[in-house]
Amino acid sequence: MTSNYTEVIVLVEGPTEQLFVKKLLAPYLAGYAVYLTPIILSKSGEKGGDVKFARAKNDIGNHLKQQRGTWITLLIDYYGIDSDWPGYNESKKAADHRAKANIMMQATAKKVQNLFSDYRPETRFIPYVSMHELEALYFSDAACLAEKLAVQQAEIDKILEQCGEPEKINDDVETAPSKRLAKLSTRFKKTTTGIAIAEAIGIQEMRDACPLFNDWLKTLEELGQ
Questions:
Q1: 50 and 155 co-located in one domain
Q2: Is the peptide bond before 63 cis (omega within 30 degrees of 0)?
Q3: Contact 98, 166 (CB under 8 A)
Q4: What is the pLDDT of residue 220?
Q5: How far is residue 143 from each of residues 28, 70, 152, 154, 215, measured CA to CA in Å?
Q6: Is the pTM of this model over 0.85?
Q7: Same structural domain for residues 24 and 128?
Q8: Which domain, by its residues, includes 142?
Q9: Does residue 46 register a pLDDT over 70?
Q10: Number of domains in the chain
């Protein structure tokens, strides 16, 4: 009997991304008959952070081999990604954040296809590298973010005016999205306050403000059709 839903394993960077998928993305995409299972990229004796392709490729390959009826996708941050990631050096030469993302995702898809060609990655693997951090999505609703952090909305608006849009909030150790949130308020904690902010904003608001995120979700939605 043919199932009428699609299973997708989401290989995520760490606990924040895992919670984001579990609490927001999975319920949202279930409405499209797409069922997500978030799994943190494995590393001997450690979880989260330090996102190297040398670490990710083993998990990607294992899931492609072991669960041939499922799709595999990624949810990892461009900020802090290791220089061994496919497309990394070329992406650093691009000024536009969309170009950076496209370079990384196309290079990742090509590399995975070359490494695991026996397991149909061209039809089962969807790369996604968020610009520049998952926390950029929380800037999609300045009023909500300001309320949740108990700060003036003008402080959020100023960041958006400087950067242009949430996904352009940059890739610097002092000014990456999570760093800015931590500076705005000591209340901000990635896996608690951050997820609560995301739930308050909602997926649709994030899609409207973040085109790259929206494109990824469109691709996932289409799996259920």
A1: no
A2: no
A3: no
A4: 98
A5: 23, 39, 9, 9, 24
A6: yes
A7: yes
A8: 134-202
A9: no
A10: 2
